[in-house]
TrEMBL record:
Name this polypeptide is given: Kinesin-like protein
Function, as annotated: Plus end-directed microtubule-dependent motor protein that regulates the length of motile cilia by mediating depolymerization of microtubules at ciliary tips.
Pfam families: Kinesin
Binding locations of ATP: G92, P93, T94, G95, C96, G97, K98, T99
Region named Disordered: 190-209
Organism whose genome encodes this protein: Scopus umbretta
Keyword DNA damage appears in the UniProt entry: no
Gene Ontology molecular function: ATP binding; microtubule binding; microtubule motor activity
UniProt biased composition (Polar residues): 196-208
Residues in Kinesin motor domain copies: 1-330
Record-level GO cellular component terms: cilium; microtubule
Family the entry assigns: Belongs to the TRAFAC class myosin-kinesin ATPase superfamily. Kinesin family.
Main subcellular localisation: other
Subcellular localization, as worded in the UniProt entry: Cell projection, Cilium; Cytoplasm, Cytoskeleton
Amino acid sequence: QVALRIRPMSTAELAEGARPIAHRVDEQVVLLRDPMEDPEDVLRAGRSREKSYIFDVAFDSTATQETVYRATTQGLIAGVISGYNATVFAYGPTGCGKTYTMLGTDGKPGICARTLGDLFQAIEDTSGDTEYEVSMSYLEIYNEMIRDLLNPSLGCLQLREDASGTVQVAGITEVFAISAKEVMQLLARGNRQRTQEPTAANRTSSRSHAVLQVTVRQRRQGRGLRHGRLFMIDLAGSERAAQTQNRGQRMKEGAHINRSLLALGNCIKALSDQASTKYINYRDSKLTRLLKDSLRGNSRTVMIAHISPASTAFEESRSTLAYAHRTKSIRATV
């Protein structure tokens, strides 16, 4: 499932005279208008200045956190408890609301808090002959290095593939949890360790991909062990250096961010090319290796793409819409 969320115009965009060019037409269609095209241009008179993109669900700036959660993520919980994998990731340019959607604020909690609340509630509601064990790990991928956000002193960690082909992070801290509140406290602790720096596009720009992995192990009498994994991922902002005015260290970070997002885009493109049977290179980045199971079929995956409606963000919005639209053509077989 691919969703698109348009954030409200920021005060900075309004101050520089930007006008809204991205509009949600109905529950699935988003319209993007090119602000540079001249309506008086006779040579292009036959061409439409607007392009529409269709998604599974689209949200405008009036959509609440609850609405976004219910339409995208709530339906994944039953599957995770039953032993399937699920992945939710927020994609889009710097400063378009990814972290707000995933983590939210104290007053308006995001997808992580709501999912965990419902997950523990669902476990509580299931029959008494089943034992559940919930564990979590929280890591960031920064400049192609993996850091444990729950225990940063471990330094740079490596990815390992076990005999069954599942990619694991060697030595990552795995914490067993008994309530959503406890997990949110651990998340808050991890977020304080996350690499954030100001850029011209966003005062608290996330310079890393943050990956929360929740594993639910289910032991039913006489039925053996099942386990489901839920990934919740706040990707770093896809960005052009011109837009973020990055130099030096920020520029290097941006190059690493864009390289891993390009690798993700290449995997998505290869997977969505129905006629193609070519090799899909998950090894291009740590991000794609970690998400291998989530992308290749044995997982239910939700992407929530984010854009700004401002005319000044047209190039970013157009490439994000195209990327998300391409993702929509992947057909997973769980």
